[in-house]
Amino acid sequence: MAFNKTPKVVTRFIDTYEYESVNQSGNVVKIDMYDGENKKHFGPTELLLSAVATCAAVDVAEIMQKRRKTFEEFEVVTDGIRREEHPRVFTDIILTFRFKSDNITELEVVKQAKTVVEKYCSVASTVSGVAKIDVRAEIY
């Protein structure tokens, strides 16, 4: 079976609720499953939401730049809704693309972001069989 090989990530035990993942370039991400004031790093579900947002954001930013749209700031606010029962998978992921811009409209951001999420973002495509992904935009 032929497949496209992706970079390897090694995840190491630090403590029962604390781990670190290292990619082939040696970059490290610390992860924990603590709550409240003990929380020091992203948790696995937060990393998943961040991965969906980042994967889509890079293409949306590139599209806007190719269309000669200018922006001072750009962020994606990502919310996830999870099932109450185990496994507590995400049933919905809401991506709100926020631009500070004088020449970008919400309509064009939503249109481009939906295309990216549905056709180009491999992370969104991976989770879309389980979670419905909704795209929104805010221009300020």
Could you explain how this protein is built, in words?
The chain has 140 residues and is of the alpha+beta class. It folds into two domains: 30 residues, no CATH class; 96 residues, GMP Synthetase, Chain A, domain 3. It is built from three helices and six strands, in the order E-E-E-H-E-E-H-H-E. The strands form two sheets. It has a three-stranded antiparallel beta sheet, with no helix packed on it. A three-stranded mixed beta sheet has the order 4-5-6. The chain is globular and about 50 Å long. The model has no long low-confidence stretch (mean pLDDT 96).
Overview in brief:
By secondary structure, the protein is α+β, with helices and mostly antiparallel strands. It is built from three helices and six strands, in the order βββαββααβ.
Give the secondary structure arrangement, pairings included.
Blueprint: E1 9-15, E2 18-23, E3 28-32, H1 44-66, E4 73-82, E5 90-100, H2 106-120, H3 122-127, E6 132-139
Parallel strand pairs: 5-6
Antiparallel strand pairs: 1-2, 2-3, 4-5
